[in-house]
Design goal:
This protein is mainly α. It has helices spanning 13-24, 27-40, 43-68, 75-83, 85-114, 124-140, 142-172, 186-189, 191-194, 198-204, 206-212, 229-238, 240-259, 270-277, 281-315, 333-347, 349-352, 356-388, 390-395, 403-420, 425-447, 460-464; strands at residues 2-3, 325-326. The longest helix is centred in the middle third of the chain and has 35 residues, at 281-315. The two termini are 36 Å apart.
Length: 465
């Protein structure tokens, strides 16, 4: 066991590319798209395109700053540099909680998916088993995490490409499903399907849609363990727009074309519903397996990112020193164990609320709010970076398009989305609880201030160097 060692750069280009793809295909797409379609109709396609548009600029801002100084291990580091030590503390712990809460949702979803085959199986059994397996695998090496994500992402890609192909074929032959729906692109463009519940329904779709993109910034936490980051990070980030179009827009168009928005249940994965509606229940079982592995992939990302964030916090004395401990394979084992114990506590919610979709809505809303906070701080740090380090921006080979104006517009958009969460009773509860978390962070920051090593903005001359 090593204390305060260096994380190993064990992730290759193929790992980073597939981790980035895996982050762009979240559990919210597979599990939550049914609910968003049922309340937003076909306008959900526009929702995903809008969110993907703004998140591309968050990714580019993050990429420019990470590459401006390869000493940065994650976005928490440059937030500390440009906004002060408090920002690193707040964003680090908030991102940790984001993935803990988000992973709980993923484990809950795993339990829900397996009930497709085993209706009498308590959802907590596969959830806890998956958590234990991922903890064991992540303890071994960072390369093993990369391999897991590589193959999980491959499965996701095959599933979505297959769905798009089957959906396009059924639409081309005007297939009539057993429930009487004729497959047609007209199901997408018919007037009454665009905003069936008006603007409020359209706005309500943003919560789950935001959660669908949770993890898109995960590539920013792998910076310290990436081989050749100056080459691999830009390639992964620049592919975001294409992935949004392919994985979200085309798959949703196919689902709605085959099933029609009014026939899509809010409580079942629309990917499974498509094949059931098409009269292929056996294929639906295969897709259910795929979306189960997707949830496992997201949970695996959570186990990885929470442990790395705790390690980074401990290195700045923002977390207990025990989280600095690394195994002989450079894995922050104590951070892994602590994060998984917190996730286990969350899974116990299954004993209290047996309705999987109810838990998913609550925890995904909390996670979405925290992700919006993280993305917003990245943008604020970028704006300050442009003001204080114009020389670094001038030298950058990976500049953010639109610069400060686009960062400001993106910030306004995220503030708007947070406001939307107050419109729905399901999401309003989580929104009311979040100030308690930030109050806790404020108190914790003040109490630990004396022992904290300062990691603030270096002198202007040092930045210039």
């Amino acid at each position: 066991m090593v204390t305060g060692g260096e994380l190993a750069r064990g992730l290759s280009n193929r790992h980073i590319q597939l981790i980035s793809i895996g982050g762009a295909i979240g559990t919210g797409l597979f599990m939550g798209a049914g609910k968003t379609i049922s309340i937003s109709g076909t306008s959900i396609i526009l929702t995903y395109m809008i969110i993907g548009f703004f998140l591309f600029f968050v990714m580019r801002a993050m990429g420019e700053m990470l590459l401006s100084d390869l000493k940065y291990k994650s976005f928490a580091d440059f937030c500390s540099t440009y906004l002060g030590a408090w920002a690193g503390f707040f964003i680090g712990w908030s991102y940790w909680l984001t993935w803990v809460v988000g992973s709980i949702a993923d484990y809950v979803v795993v339990g829900g998916y397996l009930q497709f085959w085993f209706p009498t199986l308590p959802a907590w059994v596969p959830a806890v088993s998956t958590l234990a397996a991922l903890l064991l695998l992540n303890v071994l090496t960072v390369k093993l995490f990369g391999e897991l994500e590589f193959w999980f992402a491959i499965i996701k890609i095959i599933a979505i490409v297959s769905l798009i192909s089957v959906g396009a074929y059924l639409t081309s032959i005007s297939f009539v499903s057993p429930n009487g729906v004729r497959s047609s692109l007209s199901n997408v463009i018919e007037r009454e399907s665009f905003m069936p519940h008006g603007l409020l329904g359209f706005f309500a779709g943003f919560q789950i849609a935001i959660f669908s993109f949770a993890g898109i910034e995960l590539v920013g936490t792998t910076a310290a363990e990436t081989k050749d980051p100056e080459r691999n990070l830009p390639r992964a980030i620049n592919a975001v727009p294409l992935r949004v179009i392919l994985f979200y827009v085309l798959s949703l168009i196919c689902i709605i074309s085959v099933s029609s928005w009014s026939k899509i249940s809010a409580h079942v994965s629309p990917f499974v519903q498509l094949f059931v509606a098409a009269g292929f229940p056996m294929v639906a079982g295969v897709i259910n397996f795929v979306v189960t592995t997707s949830a496992m992939s997201a949970a695996n990302s959570g186990v990885f990112s929470t442990s790395r964030m705790l390690y980074g916090l401990a290195m700045k004395s923002d977390a207990p020193k025990i989280f600095k401990w690394l195994t002989s394979h450079s894995v922050p084992v104590m951070g892994l164990i602590f994060s998984c114990l917190c996730m286990l506590a969350g899974i116990l919610l299954l004993f209290i609320i047996p309705d999987v979709m109810s838990i998913f809505t609550i925890v995904s809303t909390v996670s979405a709010i925290l992700f919006i906070f993280v993305w917003s701080l990245i943008l604020v740090a970028y704006i300050v970076y442009r003001m204080r380090s114009p020389d670094l921006h001038a030298k950058s080979k990976f500049k953010m398009p639109g610069g400060v104006p686009m960062a400001s517009i993106s910030l306004v958009f995220f503030i708007f989305v947070v406001g939307l969460l107050a419109l729905d009773a399901d999401t309003r509860l989580a929104l009311r609880l979040m100030p308690l978390w930030f109050l806790f962070l404020f108190v914790a920051y003040r109490l630990t201030g004396r022992s904290r090593r300062r990691f603030a903005l270096p002198p202007r001359a040092e930045i210039a160097e």
